[in-house]
Amino acid sequence: MSAEPGPVTVSWPLLVESLDRDATAARIPILLTWSSGDPLVVVCEFPEERVSWIIGRDLLGAGLDAPAGLGDVAVLPDLLDPERLELILSSPYGRVGLLLPRSELAAFLRATREPPEPPELVGEARSPEGDLADWEW
Questions:
Q1: Per the domain annotation, does 48 fall within a domain?
Q2: Which of 25, 40, 77, 130 has the least CB density, counted as fewest CB within 10 Å?
Q3: What's the pTM?
């Protein structure tokens, strides 16, 4: 008997621009992670800060084409560059706007929607009785 495969994980590192209150941009790394074990969310990690945000995958997808999000997370088109999006994260401790390439977010989301390849069968499925049994598979 073969074991069930574990959850599929898609991890996508990005270098984004962080905008502060003075509109000064700093490039910072983030890591977007999606797991088939919890398919409705994306974890956005800030490795240098040891901070993670949990964001709805559908919210990110909706933000590709139009402003999305009303609470602590929003995704908006960049008004100056249609190839970029602004991801806004708000908490009681502060707010940050991150500029990221639209194409990278779209590619990440496509990777989370493609079903994993089924495992390949090795050999033929055969009954212990050989060709004498009429098994329906």
A1: yes
A2: 130
A3: 0.77
